[in-house]
Amino acid sequence: MKYSSLSDFLEQGKAALAKGPIAVICVEDLREVDTTIRHHRMIGFREIILLAPDMLELTETLEALVHRVPYDMHADDALALAMNQVIDATAPGQWLYYCYNAEYLFFPFCENRTIGEMLAFHLEERRDAMLTYVVDLYADDLDRFPDAVSIEEAHLDKSGYYALARPDPANHNHPKERQLDFFGGLRWRFEEHVDRERRRIDRIALFRTKPGLRLLPTHTFSDEEYNTYACPWHHNLTATICSFRTAKALKANPGSRYDIDTFKWHNSTKFEWHSQQLLDLGLMEPGQWF
Q1: How crowded is residue 51: how many other Cβ atoms within 10 Å of its Cβ?
Q2: What is the spatial distance between Cα 239 and Cα 131, in angstroms, rounded to a whole number?
Q3: Taking the domains of the chain in order of start, what are their residue ranges?
Q4: Alpha carbons within 13 A on the beta-carbon side of 117
Q5: Residue 92: which residues within 8 A CB-CB, separation 6 or more?
Q6: Residue range 202-243, pLDDT digits in tens
Q7: Are 98 and 24 in contact (CB under 8 A)?
Q8: What does the pLDDT read at residue 234?
Q9: Euclidean distance between CA atoms 118 and 109, whole angstroms
Q10: Can you tell me the mean pLDDT for 140-161?
Q11: Residue 162 pairs with which residues in a beta bridge?
């Protein structure tokens, strides 16, 4: 279904926000929008909201799978402004998820379990949000794939990820409890081309709505408990967003385009498009869910 604006959707499309899990796909360019929609429908999202430019063309089949909303993702604070309006309009307690095009959510055992089943377990552990790691994907041959995007030849880094304590400015920069800043992938290897505030790879992409909740431009939330990686008692589930977004940006930006001949290095490995590979590499955590 198509809408004339985000405000039109929030007024006329309220039924889509009544029951989750709901995915919001933010379209920044025209690459792999179709595969992004199909992937998130396949893993079980009940509704998909597509924030996309007018120039995007979809097949009738894909149009029928989404609530299409015209939106400019390149405006200042576009993500936070859109998501906070969606949060306010969504029924309290529903699970929301957001990503960009050419990003793909994987969670433990997602090949034979749905996103709804996973979130039901997560909720039983009294968790209202889930940490996701954004793992960079990139094509192996930039001569063949100059925009760094290839589903068939996607690669990722199998090591080089690390975490640092997250300082709390309100408490003399002492570390925040159960919060870490995570780094790695292309943003780490090519950090000279990435602004300091954009180098983190952690994102709270799955969360339950509640009145007054705000998504911040840092991909964290106004409720500090939402920003934790686990409860105080044991490890919790985490998920991974496998993303071409950084690779696309590094090859599109004039300041980095000509400095990078390849993204491959000795720790590159072909992406198998399977959750077990991500579990084996330690890029997500099954917690107590087996």
Answers
A1: 26
A2: 7
A3: 1-101, 104-290
A4: 12
A5: 209, 210, 211
A6: 999 999 999 999 999 999 999 999 999 999 888 899 999 999
A7: yes
A8: 83
A9: 9
A10: 97
A11: 183
64-78, pLDDT tens digit by residue? Answer: 999 999 999 999 999
Cβ-contact 26, 51 below 8 angstroms = yes
Residue 261 token pair: 């001949």
Q: Is the model's pLDDT at 19 over the cut of 90? A: yes
Tens digit of each residue's pLDDT (9 = 90 or more) over 28-67 = 999 999 999 999 999 999 999 999 999 999 999 999 999 9
- Which SS3 state, helix, strand or coil, does residue 42 take? helix
Question: Are the C-beta atoms of 26 and 101 separated by less than 8 Å?
Answer: yes
Give the angle subtended at the CA of 219 by the CAs of 132 and 67, to the nearest 5°: 80
Comparing CA positions, the residue from 66, 236, 241, 242 lying closest to residue 151 is 242
d(CA 46, CA 263) in angstroms, rounded, equals 36
Measured distance CA(18)–CA(130) in Å, rounded? 21
Contact 101, 225 (CB under 8 A): no
In this model, does residue 290 exceed pLDDT 90? Answer: no
What is the dotted CATH code of the domain comprising 1-101? 3.40.50
Tokens found for residue 121: 């377990």
Q: Rounded CA gap, 118 and 288, in Å?
A: 11
